[in-house]
């Protein structure tokens, strides 16, 4: 393990060398990662994998042009060579640049942040982790009709030091813990799967104690019940209807929706020539109905994206993104903030690793609550509709804002009651229109964490925490994700997760 | 990327440390360098260099297999990684053996995929290549976006680490040096059409950035304003990048495990007709345009495998473990991908084309229809039928045997095999989207406007 003093020295060396070579701005981010993943399938150990890596990422601004270099296992010589290379790259790239980048003003930051947890998962023996996963699989497989049981645990510890040429020096020690299981039911034809805690598992900025407190083994019976129930369910019928999403599904949707508020997409700083359905000024445009309030909270307790600073060294700050359906602010880094003439960035620059440049990404999202007592109250107040619990997949094109979503479980609602389960629900729309159809939400919100979609090249995947209520939407186009017949003229909605699931 | 002798020294040192006290051990080296330059008509937007290397230790004991990977390749780093892996697997000693063993030594084909001059290319040279696209866009009043990507060793264009050397306690030892460069440019006329061109090789000498810009410029400069098309089934010419984007899913779904589960197009029965009789698709790492890795992630030698021959399903491909279980020969198709993890599939697809025809010939052949240069947002909806959905990229009408006006992007939702049954002609093959594929003329590509779900 590279010691702390050496990591700090390397970061300062990188910044000083870049300035000496002519950079107008330089930052160096030294990170050390430890990742552990354990997976079982039908109680067999499929993956027991630990990874440790460390490196330094150096980003410079030379003549208004960015360049970035990343070096694994760096020593002083590597850092000096890397500094020379990154400044040369920026200088070469600057020749044809039309619009030089500049940064919003900021005060130098000094400080430290550490995820609050009791037990470091790295100190829990593998056989204890495996025992938990096998207990889950055993309970699921004991049920008649359950043919597939998959469980997983994933832990990630990141220790980061960021030094900038403007005098910032911040240190962070971040831990995320992910866990989940999946039950697959079949009686010979077709497989219906249901997951817990939802989607493809949940992620939190917490320790092993969170895993033990989730009641995973006790949750297996209701999950198996749901999976078996799906076998006899009819396909979700098509039509424009009222849609009620549980908190998990709302969270999944918000994670994708918020991509249209990423300023680097809007300005083409991340993907060239991409337009988005939100005006470049951002503030003042409509994103939803008056029932929609949405904010960033980088210090949400247990949030998967919780941190004390972003990867430009901006301190964590709560930011209102949408109030009563009107956009208040885009998510920005310092370059985008300067373009928008914001006094400060929203502190949203995040990188998945030392090896990649930061992009604008949400830390944790918080959606405002409504007035309904709970999901049952929303259902009781709905004459005709569909309840969807959890999302299996959501494909959103940030350029147009169009999306297609596939739910995990669904029930038909008639006269204020759930009357029958439905299979493979799907719904679609445009984010601007969809959130405009929001007309009610529950008082209680739930916190979950999920992996956001990829961004940038190299592709980056980051965890984001979401606190959201269950919510209701009027007049949504709902259908089924069941496969169409090949000779069908009027094709129903068909979506997929985009890739085969692991170990399939 | 380490030289062969140095890589073997590291593997040997790590293997001797990892093998004590376990049933079997395997050590692999992965990673390398990635240089990225991306640009628009406004200049270079990304200039980055990324180097990363990992040694992965896999140990087996009592039927359990544990992996530990580290970026610390020093002696102490290797020792710590080996000890950690062994400590993880230690509790499993009493469980008994699953019968799994690591692969025996293999003989590997010699593949020349390394070019020292390409390895030496840095940010300045990449910027010079990018400048051609930027200057062309400025001169002709076009929008541009493009990229120059260069990898050395076991690194993918998306920064994913791949192994380039592997050894195990059964005596298996493998090493493969590689350089790879990709150059792509897309030029768009505001309110008009888009022209794109891309090429990829192990050697920069084989790429011609000026020709790529010229190709893209020629297409983007075609007259006509963007038209909206109605939903329907279209006679279509798919250019090689569009075919490559579809065939990728054949590669992901041709593993023996999926076939056995009933989740592959091969589950309908090997020997059954799945495509037009003119369709031949195989996996062949040794193809001149691929020059691929001759072994998989466990060091098993890759074998060329026919997947579809004269329209009839063949294959599947096998990992070491599935081949042992099914008592057949392993084909070296245990793959890893940062998004989907480890899987059994084909990575170096080759589809036969017609060397006497160009894409323009196909356009003339179909007379009326649409020209589909590329696809985006392609998602797999069903692995058994290889049904995919997505959006066209840079669509054009075909009128009177020539390329007509540009069209708005359209959504598609189609079975890849269904489309391969509707092939009426093919052009010559080239490397596009990671596969060696021809352009295809097909009857009945279902399309609908993106605004009309």
Ordered list of secondary-structure elements with their pairings:
The complex is a heterodimer of chains A (504) and B (453).
Chain A lengths: L3 H17 L4 E17 L2 E19 L2 E8 L3 H19 L15 E5 L11 H16 L4 E19 L4 E17 L6 E5 L5 E3 L3 H6 L6 H12 L2 E2 L3 E7 L1 H11 L5 H4 L27 E3 L22 E5 L2 E2 L6 H7 L8 E2 L8 E2 L3 E4 L7 H6 L3 E14 L4 E13 L2 E7 L1 E6 H6 L1 E14 L11 E18 L24
Parallel strand pairs in A: 4-6, 9-19, 10-17, 16-22
Antiparallel strand pairs in A: 1-2, 1-5, 2-3, 5-6, 6-7, 6-8, 10-22, 11-12, 11-16, 12-13, 14-15, 17-18, 18-19, 18-20, 20-22, 21-22
Helix pairs in contact in A: 1-2
Chain B lengths: L3 H15 L5 E17 L2 E19 L2 E7 L4 H15 L26 H4 L3 H18 L2 E12 L8 E6 L4 E3 L3 E10 L5 E8 L7 H12 L11 E7 L1 H13 L3 H6 L19 E3 L21 E5 L2 E2 L6 H6 L8 E4 L3 E4 L4 E3 L7 H8 L2 E4 L1 E9 L4 E7 L2 E4 L2 E5 L3 E6 H6 L1 E4 L3 E3 L2 E3 L2 E10 L4
Parallel strand pairs in B: 9-16
Antiparallel strand pairs in B: 1-2, 1-4, 1-5, 2-3, 4-7, 5-6, 7-8, 9-25, 10-11, 10-15, 11-12, 13-14, 16-19, 17-18, 18-21, 19-20, 21-25, 22-25, 23-24
